[in-house]
Design brief:
Elements (H helix, E strand, L loop, with lengths): L2 H12 L5 H13 L1 H19 L9 H18 L5 H52 L15 H8 L14 H10 L8 E9 L5 E8 L4 H13 L6 H4 L5 E9 L8
Helix pairs in contact: 1-2, 1-3, 2-3
Bound molecules: zinc ion.
């Protein structure tokens, strides 16, 4: 046994509570080691000194004094007004809800902090959206939807203030369909043109009044007349704010564009 092991067991050795084999080992080491022997001597003298100290004796009336104090405390409790159910519930809930309260408050603080941190970005976004809406003011007609077919009102609004002098083509009419068919690629028709005079009435219908220059292709003029009769060629006069009856000159040009030339 070495000094370290001996020192660990020394207290039990002095108190004589060690099992025999360990006590023998400690004994053997103490015979050889003056340092541990000195430690053992110190322990023994300390133990003797402690034994000399007298035990403090509790005052004889300690138990009765404690009982009296408890009785007084109990009597004071009984004197207190009975707590209502709500109060007792509040008392019971307080320690249980407190952590959640702290958590919620922390969340609010964090939200505020994040909001304040991001506010320059929000302001930038707001500014950008304002600028965007200023750009959108230049849209020809508010509420105009590119994905929807053009309505008569939209088209008439687009053409203001010229609509007063020249009637707006009805976007859903047969004439509009005819003119747009000229622009369809692959119709493979040769270029042609004509100048005609038409009377336009308040409901948007029109009749051919005169042909100033007939087209080479007679079918073109015939199609034009059919289109005029088929449905209202123009929007109603009220939308254009134009006079009820107008005489207009039409120049219809059919241009053949060969994509090979580009
Ligand atoms: Zn030793």
């Amino acid at each position: 046994m070495n000094c370290e092991e001996t020192t660990e067991l020394l207290s039990q050795f002095i108190d004589d509570v060690l099992p025999l084999p360990q006590r023998t080992s400690v004994d053997a080491h103490l015979d050889l080691c003056p340092v541990c022997r000195a430690h053992a001597a110190e322990f023994r003298s300390l133990t003797r000194s402690l034994r000399k100290i007298t035990r403090p004796v509790p005052p004889g009336d300690l138990a009765s004094a404690i009982n009296a104090a408890l009785q007084i405390e109990a009597a004071a409790r009984r004197q207190l007004p009975e707590r209502s159910l709500v109060d007792r519930l509040a008392l019971w809930l307080e320690p249980r809800l407190m952590p959640y309260g702290v958590g919620s408050f922390a969340s609010v603080v964090m939200f505020a902090a994040v909001f304040i941190a991001l506010s320059p970005h929000f302001m930038a976004l707001q500014l950008a959206s304002k600028q965007l809406s200023t750009v959108l003011v230049f849209r020809p007609s508010p509420g105009y939807d590119l994905n929807q077919p053009v309505s008569s009102e939209d088209f008439s609004n687009l053409r203001a203030p010229f609509a007063e002098q020249s009637p707006s083509l009805n976007p859903g009419g047969a004439l509009a369909a005819l003119t747009s068919s000229y622009a369809q690629p692959g119709t493979n028709q040769e270029g042609d043109d004509m100048i005609v005079i038409a009377d336009v009435f308040s409901n948007g219908s029109a009749t051919l009044a005169d042909v100033v220059q007939a087209p080479r292709d007679r079918q073109m003029l015939a199609d034009f007349e059919v289109a005029l009769r088929q449905s209202a060629a123009f929007v109603p006069a009220s939308l254009d704010r134009r006079p009820d009856t107008m005489r207009v000159v039409f120049t219809v040009q059919k241009v053949d564009v060969r994509d090979r030339s580009f």
